[in-house]
Specification:
By secondary structure, the protein is of the alpha/beta class. The protein is built from 1 helix and 6 strands.
C-alpha cells in the first residue's frame, strides 16, 4: 500500500451517486454538509446538503465536537458497501459554521470550469 496521502477532490454530496466519476472505492474526497445526526457509539455522522446525504465514519478524528445543525467539512476515503451505500472514512474534519453553501457551490463550479479550460488549453 502506498504511503502517499492523496488530496481530497472537492465534491458536493449531490455528486456522490453511483453514476458519478467520483463514486469510486478508495477515492480521496473533500465533502461539506450540515450535520443531521451523530452517534457516539458508532462514531458515524450523517451530513446533508439539500436532498443528498452521506455517512461519515469519524472514528479516527480527535478534538472535534459534533453539533447537529452545524456545518462540517471532511476529507477522507470513500468506502462503497456491497449495496452501493457510500461511507466516507474521514481522516480530517472541521467545523465550518458560517460558510455560505450557495457561494461554496458556485465557487466549486467555477473551479471545475477553470480546470477544464486549463486542461483544454494544454491539449490544444
Amino acid at each position: 500500500m502506498s504511503s502517499v496521502v492523496k488530496s481530497g477532490a472537492l465534491v458536493s454530496l449531490q455528486e456522490l451517486q453511483p453514476s458519478s466519476p467520483f463514486f469510486k472505492q478508495g477515492a480521496s474526497l473533500r465533502v461539506t454538509g450540515k450535520l443531521q445526526e451523530y452517534s457516539v457509539e458508532t462514531a458515524i455522522a450523517i451530513v446533508i446538503d439539500g436532498s443528498a446525504n452521506l455517512k461519515i465514519n469519524t472514528e479516527h478524528l480527535r478534538d472535534l465536537t459534533f453539533r447537529a445543525g452545524s456545518i462540517y467539512q471532511f476529507i477522507g476515503e470513500l468506502l462503497i458497501q456491497p449495496d452501493n451505500e457510500a461511507i466516507l472514512q474521514a481522516r480530517v474534519g472541521r467545523n465550518v459554521d458560517g460558510i455560505d453553501l450557495n457561494l461554496y457551490h458556485q465557487s466549486l463550479q467555477l473551479v471545475r470550469q477553470f480546470q477544464a479550460d486549463h486542461i483544454n488549453d494544454q491539449a490544444a
